[in-house]
Write a structure and sequence with these properties.
By secondary structure, the protein is of the alpha+beta class. The chain is 53% helix and 16% strand. The protein has four domains: 94 residues, no CATH class; 219 residues, no CATH class; 186 residues, no CATH class; 176 residues, no CATH class. Helix 17 packs antiparallel against helix 22. The protein is elongated.
Length: 905
């Protein structure tokens, strides 16, 4: 055995010396060529000659054939090239950087063609990484970075209120507060109120419920929009004046060019149309504003509603409006907030309830207010997809490292023949650039598909989702990612090629080759595993969260529960008996319909997105004001919903107005260890002076706003005796059939009472519940896709490292087998090496995930950030993938023939 090893070493030295000698002799023959041509192309010609010469023995026919052909080619080309006069400018151009660069690109194309398998893997990996990142950047660009589609959008703000006593932010304004702000806030050019109500419209298409936006004249100046037909609202316009949306103009009026001056009927009141808005105009406000995405009619608010004059209400209990404003040029957010703080202090001095509530004013940039709640979610998704890009770059770098180690002899010959490090790195970077550009092109194609996929699965609550597109900014980003990726995955192979030791490389020592880059490849694969573990753990935690949310009991039974809305006009329904009598009779009729078991009225509907918070206090401590969730319901509501009555009773027919039912949370908060029945709360649910209400019942807590957040204490008031006209109310109906199949009978029954009142927005309660989990499911799907890509690429990386290691250690393995080692023992040794890499990556990934999980903390529910079950499951899964990726290439060990290995050496 020692003899064979010595013979092998001698053969390596002789082989290297012969190649260097042949290259020097060939360099001598290159002098036959013109000097400029030899300087420019001498390295490439020498490399091709040495490759052709290969390992041919000096006395073999192949050896002499290569030499004779090479010398003949040089002589023939020398004659041809010397006949052509090359002036100095042409020589200078040929040796310039562009010429060399394009020469390197041409050589890179030829080099990549020689390895179509690895080239295809690299291109697919890069296309997936760049495409996924470009898709997510298109979402970020459209949702967060792109300015709002209004002139001077950077000067648009929401003027919002805060009630410090009840820790309430994003609070609405009273009409009196708005008028005060408009008269005294000198930092704003324009200011307007925004509110929306659902009203019944009578047209040629029959009765339908539309979204009516209430605003003031400056509104259209704030947003910089002009009607395409007619005029905007003016200061002296009354509530019977309005503008209609382009969509309503087309659907309900057929695009009639003479629409201006015509009237529509909203809740039995005529409204004169003075203009039509542009088709692309839409007002986007944050969800807390309660403004729907589509407004059909914009009009001045009614001065006198059944519940009082909105413009005369100065108590915060009557606050309803949102205020949008355009700041003067040059005003900063800090300057605006300073002025509003002074004005808020003045309101606290003027009104006692403002002082008691701790009234504050502040501004929120409109874009930030809209996208702020989703910013952390989108950044978390972009961080996840950035990990996918890093993994893809690491995988490509590993593949190129293997190729670079295989080409060490080529690089060594270049260096031995005078090629500098910069020249060698240029050759490698040219190949990387080609790969990056081709991968980037494929990535852009994937990005178009990915952006459409994100738009299709995005939840309804994601703002500006309709504007997601791959535009010029996104394409520039894709190009930038491709170029940066070139340096990321091309740097290490270029350095290895440039720093190749000619003597070591010419000796072709497999052991030195393996050691030179094996550690770096192992480190890269370990990093891939770590990043994949982070993504998989995020996916696992989100999966647990979705499961926990789906198991949450919201405080009612939502299966076989139908919701819809009904709104009564003030005309013909005198308050309060007219409205109460209508709903009482209609609910009785509905409950008698086939497929309908029971029905009740509630406002606002659970989980619909509408909110109603009010303040209350206890007679014993009138100075302590607390925020409560307010619900107005009819008798039998808790039975219809399946909400458990814990103590006392619910509302009866004929109940006086001064009774209330409270939630368990409120009872435990205000009367811990006591009986809540018979206690008194002081509240003003409808505005105006507060009154005392006697608690007659306690029910289980209901999550009206969100499944993931415990609802604040709730007070229920009876609908009997309250004014209901000019106001939308929700109806919930328990059915024995699929909920939507009961809608036709309910519509027919409602038309029997009043054909001018539509049954609007029939939605099964299960749909509202599903929307509560929609964002988590959206993030889970994307995380799952990214994690699948990551673990697949990491598995391929492990496979590549082990397969290359087995190939490089064939001689060592052959010697071990020749000395009596068992094939299975050697396989276990290699598998152990691979699993150590995977285990190190898993450990690093788990540690990184403990830190990274904070970025998706707002999306988690019912599961801790460090969940032992999830972490253990993911670690086991990754180890299993690593075992599979390691075991496959080790099967080649059983095919190694010791005799053939030693004979080859």
């Amino acid at each position: 055995m020692r003899y064979w090893l010595k013979l092998h070493c001698v053969a390596l030295r002789v082989n290297g010396m012969r190649e260097r000698f042949s290259a020097k002799v060939y360099r001598t023959f290159l002098r036959l060529l013109p000097e400029a041509f030899a300087v420019t192309y001498g390295d490439d010609l020498t490399r091709v000659f040495v490759d052709r010469l290969g390992t041919a023995r000096p006395a073999s026919p192949h050896f002499w054939f290569v030499w004779i052909r090479a010398v003949a080619d040089l002589c023939a080309n020398s004659v041809r090239l010397r006949k052509k006069t090359i002036n100095s400018s042409e020589i200078s151009r040929m040796s310039s950087f562009p010429e060399r660069f394009f020469s390197d690109l041409s050589f890179g194309v030829r080099s990549l063609k020689r390895t179509p398998g690895s080239t295809s893997v690299v291109l697919i990996t890069l296309a997936l990484g760049i495409g996924a990142n470009t898709s997510m950047f298109s979402v970020l660009n459209s949702v967060i970075f792109r300015p709002l589609d209004y002139p001077g959008a950077e000067r648009l703000y929401l003027v919002e209120a805060a009630w410090q006593a009840t820790e309430t932010r994003n609070a609405p304004h009273t009409g009196v507060d708005y008028q005060f702000l408009r008269e005294n806030a000198g930092s704003f050019e324009e200011m307007a109120v925004v509110w929306s109500v659902r009203q019944n419209m009578i047209s040629d298409n029959g009765a339908e419920q539309i979204e009516a936006g209430w605003t003031t004249a400056p509104f259209f100046n704030v947003f910089g929009v002009d009607p395409i037909i007619g005029r905007a609202l003016q200061e002296n316009d009354e509530s019977g004046t309005g503008l209609i949306s382009h969509a309503l103009w087309q659907t309900s009026f057929g695009g009639d060019a003479e629409i201006v001056g015509n009237s529509i009927t909203l809740d039995a009141r005529p409204v004169t149309i003075v203009g039509v808005l542009p088709p692309d105009f839409a007002v986007t406000l944050p969800p807390t504003a309660g403004l729907p995405a589509r407004i059909d009619v914009w009009r001045m608010p009614d001065r006198q509603m059944a519940n009082g004059d909105f413009w005369a209400m100065d108590a915060l209990a009557g606050a309803a409006f949102r205020v949008v404003a355009r700041a003067k040029p040059g005003m900063t957010e800090e300057q605006l907030n300073t002025e509003l703080a002074i004005l808020a202090a003045e309101r606290r001095e003027t009104f006692a309830d403002h002082a008691e509530a701790g009234f504050e004013l502040y501004v929120s940039p409109l874009l930030e207010a809209i996208v702020g709640p989703t910013r952390s979610t989108l950044y978390a998704l972009f961080g996840a997809v950035a990990l996918v890009l890093l993994i893809s770059c690491a995988n490509v770098a590993n593949i190129l490292l293997v190729k670079a180690r295989a080409r060490r002899r080529e690089m060594a010959v270049r260096a031995a023949l005078g090629g500098g490090k910069g020249r060698i790195m240029s050759v490698v970077f040219a190949e990387s650039l080609i790969l990056a550009l081709l991968g980037g092109t494929g990535g852009v194609a994937i990005a178009f598909w990915g952006a459409g996929l994100v738009q299709a699965i995005a939840p309804a609550g994601l703002p500006r989702v309709d504007g997601i597109q791959v535009d010029s900014t996104v394409l520039v980003f894709a190009l930038g990612v491709a170029v940066v990726s070139t340096f990321v995955f091309g740097l290490m192979p270029a350095l290895i090629g440039a720093n190749a030791n000619p003597i070591d490389a010419m000796r072709n020592s497999s052991r030195s080759v393996a050691r030179s880059g094996g550690r770096l490849g192992t480190l890269i694969v370990g990093g891939e595993i770590a990043m994949a573990v982070v993504l998989l753990l995020g996916t696992g935690l989100l999966f647990r969260t979705v499961g926990a949310l789906e198991r949450v009991r919201p405080g009612f039974d939502y299966e076989r529960l139908l919701t819809y809305s009904v709104s009564l006009p003030s005309e013909g329904y005198a308050a309060p008996s007219g409205t109460h009598g209508f709903y009482r009779d209609f609910l009785e009729t509905s409950a008698a319909l086939p497929g309908v078991e029971s029905a009740a009225v509630v406002w606002p509907l659970p989980l619909e997105g509408q909110w109603w918070y009010g303040q209350y206090n206890l007679p014993a401590t009138p100075e302590l004001t607390t925020k409560a969730n307010i619900r107005v319901i009819s008798g039998g509501y808790f039975d219809v919903m399946g909400t458990v009555l814990l103590d006392g009773r619910t509302f009866f027919e004929g109940d006086v107005r001064e009774v209330a039912v409270v939630s368990e949370a409120l009872a435990e908060k205000e009367w811990p260890g006591q009986i809540a029945i018979g206690q008194t709360v002081h509240a003003s649910p409808w505005g105006g002076p507060g009154r005392d209400f006697q608690v007659v019942g306690v029910v289980e807590d209901v999550r009206y706003q969100s499944l993931s957040e415990a609802e604040i204490p709730t007070i229920y008031f009876s609908t009997e005796g309250w004014s209901w006209n000019d106001w939308e109310f929700g109806v919930v109906a328990r059915t024995s059939v699929p909920p939507l199949s009961a809608v036709p009978a309910l519509k027919e029954a409602l038309a029997g009472f009043d054909a001018t009142i539509p049954l609007a927005r029939p939605v099964p309660m299960t749909e509202y519940v599903d929307k509560q989990v929609a964002t988590n499911r959206f993030v889970l799907r994307l995380f799952g896709i990214f994690a699948l890509l990551a673990i697949t690429m990491a598995g391929i990386g492990v496979y590549g490292v082990i397969a290359h290691a087995v190939g490089q250690r064939t001689r060592e393995i052959g010697i071990r087998l020749a000395l009596g080692a068992q094939s299975k023992a050697v396989q276990k040794l290699v598998v152990r090496q691979g699993l150590l890499i995977v285990a190190a990556g898993v450990l690093a990934g788990v540690l990184a995930a403990v830190f990274a999980v904070r970025f998706i903390g707002s999306l988690l529910y019912g599961v801790p950030g460090v969940d032992v079950l999830t972490y253990g499951t993911i670690a086991g899964l990754v180890m299993a993938v690593g075992l599979l990726a390691t075991a496959i290439p080790t099967r080649k060990i059983s095919l190694v023939d010791p005799a053939e290995t030693l004979r080859a050496e």
